[in-house]
Amino acid sequence: MNYDELADLYALQYRDYTDDLEFYARLADSQGGPVLELGAGQGRVAAHLARRGVEVWALEPSAAMRERGEASTRSLPVRWIAGEMRDFALDRRFPLIIAPFNALMHLYTLANQDAAIERVAHHLEAGGVFAFDLYNPLLIRADGALRLEGRYGEVEVFYHQEHHPAAQRLLTHYLVCEAGGGPRRRYTLDQRYFTRYEVARWLGGAGFDASLKGGFHGEPFTATSPVMVWTARRVS
Description:
By secondary structure, the protein is of the alpha/beta class. The chain has 2 domains: 4-136 and 195-234, Vaccinia Virus protein VP39 (Rossmann fold, 3-Layer(aba) Sandwich), CATH 3.40.50; 141-192, N-terminal domain of TfIIb (Single Sheet). The chain contains 6 helices and 11 strands. A 7-stranded mixed sheet has the order 3-2-1-4-5-11-10, with helices on both faces. It has a 4-stranded antiparallel sheet with strand order 6-7-8-9. Strand 6 (147-152) and strand 7 (155-164) form a beta hairpin. The longest helix has 14 residues, at 110-123.
């Protein structure tokens, strides 16, 4: 999907999200750099790593998201690249490739997923690590009810969701309301979710030895874990 229209909303929602930052920072410390980030968005994770002295190559297809990211990392060692994770081609390999915060959920088809993992494997150094997180689909609660997502100053964001289990798709419809009765804005986020063993088979088939955790601090994965945190080492 095209995030250009969602860039302003995304900035409101996630500028203060920090749950995953130390997880990716620990990996960067252990693996070394440079780090390739897929779906780098507006540079939230890239900036955190770069402030610690890690060089980051930030791949992002949305021009509006890249523009914000470039502005926020202008004085940092971040190299922004326009491109899709399913067909990128760079002139080097990396010890660590990351896809934080559900970035892989925009790989809507099996062909897209296979193309992306092939690109990851091609760009990893021998023994390199591919790490990413996805939300746990067992926690989906898409009953169509309109809920308050958050208040951001004078802006309120509401949402309702459509769940299409046969396609493993989740559509999140946002309604953005401003104080003073300004025009309401509507946006839709389209995500294709992954199940646990689907991911394990996907990674194993591509030559990765994968480990799953249920949180960013090594918590065991359970049915009620909020996220699936994957660390996969290239072994073939």
